[in-house]
Amino acid sequence: MSDKSTNWTELREFRAVDLTESFVLSWDAESGSLQIDLDLFLCPEHAFYERPRPKERACFRPATLEFPYCSRIESAQSRGNSDAVSEAAAKLAGGRISGLRLIDDGRYEMKGVFGKVEIHAERPILRLKELNT
Predict the structure, then answer these.
(1) pLDDT digit string (tens) for 27-72?
(2) Which secondary structure element, helix H or strand E, spans residue 99, and what is its range?
(3) How far apart are CA 109 and CA 124, in angstroms?
(4) How many other C-beta atoms can be found within 10 angstroms of the C-beta atom of residue 50?
(5) Beta-carbon neighbour count of residue 73 at 10 Å?
(6) 131-35-17-53 Cα dihedral, nearest 10 degrees
(7) Domain residues of the chain, as ranges?
(8) Across the chain, which distance is largest between two alpha carbons, in Å?
(9) pTM of this prediction?
């Protein structure tokens, strides 16, 4: 049996960012979408990249990773429970991301300090937030 999954590095939404250097700050579900707040690592080729200040090690920007039409979240915290998406999201912790992959149509797996989370949703949308200067 061959693995037909697609790594995040092959998805156009994640060009010029590095998820494995990024951090999940919070998880939230509203209006049928899963919203993940991130400190997103931008690579030098990203349009909004800025050279890090002297005390910073890299260019991080606040961002939201949205999974629209999210129908289910499965994790170690929610296994065996019939939690609503919002309840399952509320149980998830933050932390560094170690990977994201498309398992098959509409199923994504995200791993990190928070464990392994399977997300049943439409293709993700990555949005940078405005910086408050």
Answers:
(1) 999 888 999 999 999 999 999 999 988 888 899 999 999 999 999 9
(2) strand 95-104
(3) 12
(4) 12
(5) 26
(6) 30
(7) 6-128
(8) 51
(9) 0.89
